[in-house]
């Protein structure tokens, strides 16, 4: 790849990240004015890794850090286990030859290979690199990380004590992933009891079918999201969603359901209106007492104070996942690309995410890109993306139980540049 193009892209990357970090700092100062005079501020971030190839044999992987408050990408790191030039030179000269070793020393500065471990370990090592430079590059400490429930990255960062022994990194749970853990645990329960000749699934009424598991998973997520940041209310709502599903006319289990005329529980809603409650036989999601008894340990574990205290932010990694999708549209996983080409795709995707199309053009030094025609097209693209985002939110708002899905990327710096 042409050296001049690489230098230009590197300048674009540095300028884009500088603008984004400054905007993120301004967003934090706007919320807490006392941060204005602080050289280094503490922020909460969402971190996730992704790989260029599906499976566990990818030669390329990357990690992206997004500020939770502003939604801006603060940093990213691409790691590679492969360098094409090294492979070709080794084949032509012989990897054990003195000639190859001399060539390799001169090539070290330009070598694409930057990691020797397993593909799975790329995520946590990329995080370690970015956390270590967070103070020097961003003037920030990433003191809270939003990640998946079984994140090895969080454990790895904690062991390395990035900011010393006095400052510990806290972990927050992604609502989507914690809800998926419930679904996975319930499916495992069905398999566990099937081995013991006890059928929890099946077609009979009150069984723990896949359809019911999906509904319980959505109820669990909604119970947490609607009651952020009160963990006691979260816990009550979680158990209410389970017990409501086991209610019968002979034995109502609606005690924990919310009161009032706007309650989602038909039983409590009817009582609030001084009406006779309808029959529980019309419940769309019914679980037998046997099923509830068997899955109660799962709920007790996932409704514990330890878990719920990590959900008080009520955030998801949708932004990370959307950005990953945008990156892999530019660099399809089915086609091999070099580390440098992937870095260009990542930079371009982050520019559109952070700045939008218009500001991405204005930030570039190439005057040929800033003509009126290019800017007109960029404005249309920004408007279309914003319009798509509003439309998606409106559609989702009309559903009582929104499905867990990815939100489309919009230029999140729009409010800084267009609404001031």
List its traits.
52% helix, five-stranded mixed sheet, single chain, 420 residues, 17 helices, Mutator-like transposase domain-containing protein, alpha/beta, disordered C terminus, 9% strand
Approximately how much beta-strand content do the residues carry?
5-15%
Cα-based radius of gyration, to the nearest Å: 26 Å
> How would you describe the oligomerization state of the chains in this entry?
single chain
Structural class: alpha/beta
Walk me through the topology:
Blueprint: H1 3-31, E1 41-51, E2 60-67, E3 73-80, H2 84-93, H3 98-107, H4 122-132, H5 134-138, E4 140-147, H6 152-160, E5 170-173, H7 175-195, H8 210-225, H9 231-244, H10 266-272, H11 289-302, H12 305-308, H13 318-330, H14 339-354, H15 356-363, H16 372-397, H17 414-417
Parallel strand pairs: 1-4, 4-5
Antiparallel strand pairs: 1-2, 2-3
Tell me what the structure shows.
- Helices cover 52% and strands 9% of the residues.
- With 420 residues, the protein is α/β, with parallel strands linked by helices.
- Helix 6 links the parallel strand 4 and strand 5.
- The chain starts with a helix and ends with a helix.
- The protein has a five-stranded mixed β-sheet with strand order 3-2-1-4-5, sandwiched between helices.
- 32% of the residues are buried.
- Helix 4 crosses helix 6.
- The protein contains 17 helices and five strands.
């Amino acid at each position: 790849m042409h050296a001049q193009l690489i230098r230009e892209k590197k300048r674009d990357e540095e300028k884009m990240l500088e603008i984004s970090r400054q905007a993120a700092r301004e967003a934090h100062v706007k919320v807490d004015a006392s941060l204005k005079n602080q050289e280094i501020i503490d922020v909460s971030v969402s971190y996730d890794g992704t790989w260029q190839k599906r499976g566990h044999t990818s030669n390329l992987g990357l990690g992206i850090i997004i500020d939770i408050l502003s939604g801006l990408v603060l940093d990213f790191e691409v790691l590679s286990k492969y360098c094409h030039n090294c492979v070709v030179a080794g084949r032509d000269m012989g990897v054990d030859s003195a000639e190859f070793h001399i060539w390799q020393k001169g090539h070290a500065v330009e070598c694409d290979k930057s990691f020797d471990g397993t593909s799975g370990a790329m995520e946590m090592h990329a995080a370690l690199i970015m956390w270590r430079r967070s103070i020097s590059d961003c003037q920030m400490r990433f003191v809270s990380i939003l990640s998946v429930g079984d994140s090895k990255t969080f454990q790895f960062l904690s062991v390395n004590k990035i900011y010393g022994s006095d400052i510990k990194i806290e972990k927050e749970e992604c609502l989507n992933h914690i809800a998926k853990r419930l679904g996975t645990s319930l499916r495992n329960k069905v398999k566990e009891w099937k081995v013991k000749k006890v059928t929890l699934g099946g077609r009979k009424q009150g069984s723990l079918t896949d359809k019911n598991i999906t509904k319980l998973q959505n109820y669990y997520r909604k119970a947490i999201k609607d009651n952020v940041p009160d963990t006691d209310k979260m816990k009550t709502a979680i158990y209410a969603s389970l017990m409501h599903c086991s209610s019968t006319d002979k034995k109502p289990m609606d005690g924990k359901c919310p009161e009032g005329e706007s309650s989602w529980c038909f039983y409590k809603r009817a009582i609030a209106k001084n009406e006779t409650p309808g029959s529980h036989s019309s419940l769309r999601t019914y679980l037998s007492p046997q099923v509830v008894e068997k899955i109660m340990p799962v709920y007790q574990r996932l409704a514990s104070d330890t878990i719920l205290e990590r959900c008080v932010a009520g955030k998801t990694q949708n932004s990370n996942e959307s950005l990953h999708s945008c990156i892999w549209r530019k660099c399809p996983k089915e086609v091999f690309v070099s580390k440098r080409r992937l870095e260009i795709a990542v930079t371009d995707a982050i520019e559109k995410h952070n700045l939008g199309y218009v500001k991405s053009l204005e930030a570039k030094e190439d005057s040929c890109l800033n003509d009126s025609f290019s800017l007109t097209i960029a404005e249309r693209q920004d408007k279309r993306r914003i319009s798509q985002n509003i439309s998606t939110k409106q559609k989702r708002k009309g559903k009582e139980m929104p499905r867990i899905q990815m939100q489309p990327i919009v230029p999140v710096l729009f409010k800084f540049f267009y609404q001031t």
